[in-house]
Automatic annotation (TrEMBL):
This is Pyruvate dehydrogenase E1 component subunit alpha. Residues 27-324 form the Dehydrogenase E1 component domain. The gene is pdhA. It comes from Sphingomicrobium clamense. The pyruvate dehydrogenase complex catalyzes the overall conversion of pyruvate to acetyl-CoA and CO(2). It contains multiple copies of three enzymatic components: pyruvate dehydrogenase (E1), dihydrolipoamide acetyltransferase (E2) and lipoamide dehydrogenase (E3). It catalyses: N(6)-[(R)-lipoyl]-L-lysyl-[protein] + pyruvate + H(+) = N(6)-[(R)-S(8)-acetyldihydrolipoyl]-L-lysyl-[protein] + CO2.
């Protein structure tokens, strides 16, 4: 238990202006339409290897990253990474080109869906090893502290990853060294086909830092303004030198674990109950209409975003594959 340690303030739902909410709405819709397009390109055989879609979880990346400073802070995540890159303002064209293994891709077409990087944006991947980003993110936080650059690392991981040993070694060091890191646990209720009920002895993931004195907050990850409100509290805590904090974002993925998963381990009713009653984009859409944004304006935004996706897909398809000589670049053959 946290004992006498100070606790973070209870977050409140972020009071966004119409312009801010409109911006979050556009970003969430951009992620949704990007992922739908990626799903189509996968179906056409244009994307090789694994492809994990973020559909349903958009409010998490947008709510958290809209509160961060690109270039100063850092972000690291697992293989379900397209949404986090888009939420950090990275061009959909170079992400789509990466998915399709093209020369103009953000990792020169050599990383694919799971291994994308942009040091320029402070985006450190894209990691296929479940839980690896927790230890690496803790290292990024150490870098922020050591170089006194004022940055914070946001390290995302899933409910499945939260059962990994290296997560707890990282928690221990982060609290001991007071590192500026937000551990964002995206609890989408499943790790591949295994539900939280079947795998987690403590299913309230926000409590997982208690034996390390790390406070945690549980958040409705299907509501972008709830997420943004929690981001404010977490950033305030970490930036003021109080060390790490855990956010558990309760969310849901609508599609299978990856494109090759028929998702037979859950019922259609369960998926529909999230899709129809809690969808983060529908919720923001309804709220914007209450704020006076017309349905026509919202439809127009969707049209514009769909056009961006058509352009991104065309850019990717028209771009060549990398030269075979690229196989010999970006390979570590000597010590640093
Ligand atoms: C160390 C390791 N063990 C197992 C796997 C296989 N694997 C890939 S994704 C995954 C499930 C992870 O689920 P979760 O952390 O909940 O993330 P989500 O896919 O739901 O975003 C597993 C077991 C892996 N990639 N790495
Ligand atoms: Mg999961």
């Amino acid at each position: 238990m946290l004992g006498n340690k100070e606790r973070p303030a209870q977050p409140t739902r972020y009071k966004a202006s119409k312009e801010e909410l409109l911006d979050y709405y556009k970003q969430m819709l951009l992620i949704r339409r990007f992922e739908e397009r990626a799903g189509q390109l996968y179906g056409l055989g244009l994307i090789g290897g694994f492809c994990h879609l973020y559909i349903g979880q958009e409010a998490v990346a947008v709510g958290l990253q809209s509160a961060m400073e690109v270039g100063k802070d850092s972000v690291i995540t697992g293989y379900r990474d397209h949404g986090h890159m888009l939420a950090y303002g990275i061009d959909p064209k170079v992400i789509m080109a990466e998915l399709t293994g093209r020369e103009a891709g953000i990792s020169k077409g050599k990383g694919g869906s799971m291994h994308m990087f942009s040091v320029e944006h402070g985006f450190y991947g894209g990691h296929g090893i479940v839980g690896a980003q927790v230890a690496l993110g803790t290292g990024l936080a150490f870098k922020h502290q050591y170089s006194e650059d004022g940055g914070v690392c946001l390290s995302y991981f899933g409910d499945g990853a939260a059962n990994q040993g290296q997560v707890y070694e990282s928690f221990n060091m982060a609290e001991l060294w007071n590192l500026p890191v937000i551990y964002a646990i995206e609890n989408n209720h499943y790790a591949m086909g295994t539900s939280v009920e079947r795998s987690a002895s403590e299913p309230d993931f926000y409590k997982r830092g208690e034996s390390f004195q790390i406070p945690g907050i549980q958040v409705d990850g299907m509501d972008v303004l709830e997420v943004r409100g929690a981001a404010e509290v977490a950033l305030d805590w970490v930036r003021s030198g109080k060390g790490p904090i855990i956010l558990e974002l309760k969310t849901y993925r609508y599609r299978g674990h990856s494109m090759s998963d028929p998702a037979k381990y859950r019922t259609r009713e369960e998926v529909d109950s999230y899709r129809k009653q809690q969808d983060p984009i529908d919720r923001a859409n309804a709220e914007l209409q209450e704020m006076g944004v017309s349905e026509e304006e919202l439809k127009e935004i969707d049209k514009e975003i769909k056009a961006i996706m058509v352009e991104a897909a065309k850019f990717a398809e028209d771009n060549p594959e990398p030269e075979p000589s690229e196989l010999y670049t970006d390979v570590l053959v000597e010590s640093y």
